[in-house]
Amino acid sequence: xxxxxxxxxxxxxxxxxxxxxxxxxxxxxxxxxxxxxxxxxxxxxxxxxxxxxxxxxxxxxxxxxxxxxxxxxxxxxxxxxxxxxxxxxxxxxxxxxxxxxxxxxxxxxxxxxxxxxxxxxxxxxxxxxxxxxxxxxxxxxxxxxxxxxxxxxxxxxxxxxxxxxxxxx
Length: 169
Ligand SMILES: [Zn+2]
Fold this sequence. Notes:
The protein is mostly helical. It has helices at 2-19, 21-27, 32-36, 39-50, 56-61, 80-86, 91-100, 111-115, 124-129, 134-143, 153-156. The N and C termini lie far apart (47 Å).
C-alpha cells in the first residue's frame, strides 16, 4: 500500500524537477542572462546566434526572398551585422547596446566597454559567444523587432501551418 504512495510522490517529484530546469542550467554554469530572459527573446537570441533567423540574408538562403534588402532602412544587405550595428531604424538601441549600456541593478555595460574594442572591429559571432554581452543583446532584442519580423508577410504568414482552411472537418 505504501508503495503506491511513494510512486505518486516520485511522480510529483518528476513534475517539480521540470520547473527547476532553469535553475539546474544556471547551476551547471548556464548563461544566467539567457536563463532570466523571456522565452521568446531567448529563442530569437539563439536563432540570431546561429544565423537561422528572420533576417534577409537567411531568408534569401532558404528561398523566402529574392534579395537581401533591409525592409527597415532600404540598405542593400540586411545581414546580422547590419541589424545590430548599422541599420538606421535601430540607432538608439544600437547606441545602448554598444556604448551606453544600462544603468541600475539589472544594468549592463555597453559591448564596446566589455570587449574593449569599437563595434566595427567586433564580429557578431564573437559578441554572441561572450556571456558578458548576453544581457545587452537580449535587451536589444526586447527593444527592437530584429529577428522578430520577417518583412515577407505574404510568404511567412502560412509557412508554419498546414493549409487547413478548405476542409477542416
Ligand atoms: Zn536596415
